[in-house]
Amino acid sequence: MIDQKQLENVECYKYLGSMLTNDGKCTCDIKSRIAMAKVAFSKKKTLFTSKLDLNLRKKLIKCYIWSMALYGAETWMLRAADQKYLESFEMWCWRRMEKISWTDHVRNEEVLLRVSEQRNILHEIRKWKANWIGHILRRNCLLKQVIEGKIKGDMEVARRRGRRHKKLLDDLKDRRGYSHLKKEALDRTMWRHHFGGGFGPVVRQNTE
Question: Counting Cβ atoms within 10 Å, is residue 128 exposed (0-12), middle (13-18) or buried (19+)?
């Protein structure tokens, strides 16, 4: 209730450009961002498929198209299906750029060789998330308390059956645990070294 008015209970709504759902998953937001990015690509298709230098066209796509598709990706908790959507979108960009139709029966590996690329979009998301999380862990703020689960509430949550839900820090945690991750975040140099240039690609996990 706000100002004596009952708010409508919805399953999905847009807030600050991101799609929020009542199940807490990011699939709806990812599909929405990818759809907008594809529309943007189509509007500039002549530029992206022109005879400009290959490296320049790739930079334009990553700057103009990927930035639109990955808006808010720092907060995404990617399941296996979400990772497949993103990798499919990555290959869609390179195929459209090189005018390679699906009916040409060109394998993804061959497409990547033609554009001198590797599967990189999940790696970029993980880097962005590491930079954002590092910034949060160095501060004493409400968001940090939320991440650490220190917000008290009166509602009891029953344990659900099946695989547990993926959490925000799962992509960054290692066997040494959250306390070690938090300690590393306090040292910017160590954090950038660990999650910087040498940061390896994300291995797709079977998390549903």
Answer: middle
The 3-state DSSP class for residue 14 equals: strand
Structural domain includes residue 15:
no
Distance CA(16)–CA(189), nearest Å, equals 32
First-last CA distance in the chain: 34
* Residue-range definition of the domain harbouring residue 84: 25-119
Beta bridge partners of 168: none
pTM: 0.74
- The number of domains in the chain is 1
pLDDT average per 10 residues of sequence, the chain (208 residues): 76 80 86 95 95 95 94 87 95 95 92 93 86 78 70 53 59 60 72 58 43
Beta bridge partners of 5: 2
* Contact between residue 76 and residue 29 where contact means Cβ atoms under 8 Å apart: yes
Residue 13: strand pairing partners: 20
Residue type, 9: N
Q: Is residue 136 part of a domain?
A: no
For residues 63 and 165, give the distance between their C-alpha atoms in angstroms, rounded to a whole number.
Answer: 32
User: Cα separation of 34 and 83, whole Å?
Assistant: 12
Answer yes or no: is 135 within a domain. no
Residue 40 within a domain: yes
